[in-house]
Design goal:
The protein is an alpha+beta fold. It has 22 helices and 25 strands. 34% of the residues lie in helices and 24% in strands. Helix 11 packs antiparallel against helix 21, helix 14 crosses helix 17 and helix 16 crosses helix 18.
Length: 683
């Protein structure tokens, strides 16, 4: 009997099938959701990256990067290539002087219906006309080649700008303010000059032309090559006026082939006498415009001195309009409009007569002179010689003439009143005052000194302090009258490093003076200390590593004309200065002052030659600072000469004068005629 096999029932229950299907669905749906959220996050990150790059590029005005972030579709729609888009930004933003561009209020959100990101933001910027009111922008961003790109249009340059519209800037330049002396006389102002120009039609041809150009070249000191280059310009026609030089009134000879046109230009009545202080203006260079986009080609700006330091105040506010015109050149929108404002006049404390007289007195030397009112700090005169022609610099100096200045070993561009020097023996006044306040230096204290040179002991090696007069008994009065280096070196050593440094700290060392003049702070030494004995001794009589410019010297010496109060300097009549500070006691200041009067009155005084001026209570101190020791025995060392002098009765002026390469006697002789007439000059 055959066995019959029973088949197993392999059918799954319905509930199990349903569960499996459900599980598979959950997996599929879950995976899809995970992918969706992952993809969305990735898109958001990509979109944010593009927005961040766009904002950064726009604020940096990096138009090349902006063009790379623009979508191809939007560029095609606008009719631009990336290169054209970049140049459009440069032409518009560059043309109106856009700078300091900042984005705020940035918002971006996904527009699900259009599958794009909407972006809105506002922009602040400056133009050549100043701050522009906030501009609001809106655009979109869509995916292109697995990345998000900005849908760019010309409205992202300015909201109302269409592809064929034009943006233009028209400006009106206000009158530049004058720089005035204390009496109101102009030191920098507008004046009339003459443009000299070639008139091609009158030059003729061939040898006639050669002859006339030769005559013109010799008369105006301009090479024939330069004249021919001017004539060869593309724009020149037979009837053109071809300017090649500016001259002053009275420098206009009648020569065939040239014409003159009157023009207004910045002029400097004192010219060389005040060039280092006042400076000059000239046309802005490409470098100037790059540094300050608000400056436009053709603008005149201050290039040096007070013209540069006060340029913004003197220039005032440029007026004008930035507009959008349509392709028919019709006004579409005024983007910005400002009213022109003339520049501010600036009145200095300077005495123009004194400035000119001091310059004439020192002309031909490498020198400086600073006059100051020791009561209120007003700077009355700041002279530096040799100088340069500021009018020529403004008119347009030739490369040959400029080269003469730069190659001049006497450095005519150097403002010596702001350059640091060892002050020499004039500084003994400060050492004396510090010693008196410390109780070390006393009126009747006497030093016994033998010979013309001295050193503390053998530890100084070959370092000696030398003096001019072999006076065996020296007290404070005779030390100042004879200008005894050894006396002051010994006093400083007795005071010690700490006392001297503390005394000097009450003056202006390391301080920045509030003046619109570039200068380094005064220093007592290279490292700011007097730790070495020989350095301490040398500093006491104004040598060592001391560096003070003539302005800083005048400010420091003001204590002797002001009962110990150090008065801070000012250069403009409206300047508020720091309160005077007590640097030394009135008793010490007055004792030093009395001795400085004797430097003039006593026959043995180093400034006794000034006594013939018959000035009552004229105080003075001379100084001859060694700059380079003699390399040959018997020859004198190289020196700079100084003269400090002030009116000790009325305190109306204080002067520090200096001549490089000379002695104090030379300075005294040079300034004596001016000091004889000082009351007339400063009244």
């Amino acid at each position: 009997m055959k066995e019959t096999k029973r088949l197993k029932n392999t059918k799954r229950p319905l509930w199990m099938i349903a569960a499996v299907i459900g599980l598979i669905s959950v997996v599929i749906i879950g995976g899809g959701a995970t992918y969706y959220f992952w993809s969305k996050q990735k898109d958001e990150e990509a979109a944010k990256k593009t927005v961040d790059s766009y904002v950064e590029a726009l604020e940096k005005q990096d138009y090349s990067t902006i063009s790379k972030l623009a979508s191809k579709t939007s560029l095609k729609k606008s009719g631009y290539t990336k290169d054209q888009m970049e140049k459009r930004y440069e032409a518009i933003y560059g043309g109106i002087g856009v700078s300091d561009l900042k984005i705020s209020g940035l918002e971006s959100s996904l527009n699900k219906e259009k599958n794009q990101y909407d972006i809105v933001y506002t922009v602040e910027m400056k133009t050549s006309l100043g701050e522009l009111e906030e501009q609001s922008f809106a655009t979109t961003m869509s995916k292109e080649e697995d990345d998000y790109k900005i849908n760019w249009a010309t409205q992202l340059i300015f909201p109302d700008l269409e592809p064929n519209d034009k943006v233009s800037l028209t400006t009106t330049i206000g009158e530049r303010g004058d720089i005035l002396a204390a009496d109101g006389s102009p030191l920098a102002t507008e004046g009339n000059v003459w443009d000299v120009g070639l008139y091609p039609e009158s030059l003729g041809e061939g040898k006639e032309k050669e002859s006339k150009l030769k005559e013109i070249s010799e008369e105006f000191d301009v090479s024939i090559e330069q004249l021919e280059n001017k004539l060869s310009a593309d724009w020149v026609l037979p009837e053109s006026f071809v300017p090649f030089k500016i001259v002053n009134e009275g420098e206009t000879p009648e020569i065939p082939g040239i014409l003159y046109q009157e023009k207004t230009i910045r002029t400097y009545p004192l010219n060389e006498a005040a060039a280092h202080l006042i400076g000059y203006v000239s046309e802005a260079t490409a470098e100037d415009i790059e540094k300050n986009p608000s400056i436009q080609p053709g603008d005149s700006i201050g290039k040096s001195g007070l013209e540069a330091a006060f340029n913004e105040r003197l220039n005032g506010q440029k007026g004008g309009r930035i507009v959008i015109n349509n392709e028919k050149d019709e006004l579409k929108k005024v983007i910005q409009e400002t009213e022109v404002k003339n520049g501010e006049d600036i009145t200095l404390t300077l005495n123009a007569k004194l400035q000119k007289a001091a310059y004439e007195q020192l002309k031909g030397e490498n020198s400086s002179a600073v006059f100051m009112d020791p009561k209120d700090g007003s700077l009355l005169s700041l002279v530096s010689t040799p100088s340069y022609d500021a009018n020529q610099m403004t008119m347009g100096i030739s490369s040959e003439d400029y080269k003469k200045y730069t190659e001049d070993i006497n450095n005519p561009f150097l403002a010596r009143f702001a350059s640091g020097y060892a002050p020499g023996s004039t500084f003994k006044t400060i050492t004396a005052a510090i010693g008196l306040d410390a109780g070390i230096t006393k009126k009747d204290k006497t030093h016994k000194i033998d010979g013309l040179k001295w050193q503390k002991d053998a530890s100084w090696g070959d370092h000696y302090i030398v003096r001019v007069s072999d006076t065996p008994q020296v007290n404070l009065e005779s030390a100042l009258v004879y200008s005894d280096n050894i006396y002051f070196a010994q006093e400083a050593l007795e005071m010690g490093q700490k006392t001297v440094e503390e005394g000097l700290s009450k003056f202006i060392f390391k301080e920045e003076l509030d003046l619109p003049i570039a200068m380094n702070p005064a220093q007592i030494s290279n490292d700011g200390t007097l730790a070495k004995e020989t350095l301490l001794a040398d500093t006491a009589y104004g040598q060592g590593q001391l560096l003070m410019n003539p302005i800083q010297q005048a400010v420091s010496f003001s204590v002797f004309a002001n009962e110990g109060k150090l008065v801070y300097p000012k250069l403009t009549t409206d300047q508020k200065t720091m309160e005077p500070k007590i640097a030394i006691t009135a008793e010490s200041a007055n004792l030093v002052k009395d001795n400085l009067i004797k430097v003039v009155e006593k026959p043995e005084g180093t400034a006794h030659s000034l006594a013939s001026l018959n000035k009552k209570n004229l105080a003075a101190k001379t100084g001859t600072a060694e700059t380079k020791a003699s390399e040959t025995e018997g020859e004198d060392a190289e020196t700079n000469g100084f003269l400090l002098t002030f009116d000790a009765e009325n305190e109306r002026y204080l002067m520090v004068a200096m001549i490089e390469g000379k002695s104090s006697g030379d300075v005294t002789s040079a300034m004596k005629p001016l000091l004889g007439n000082i009351e007339e000059l400063i009244k």
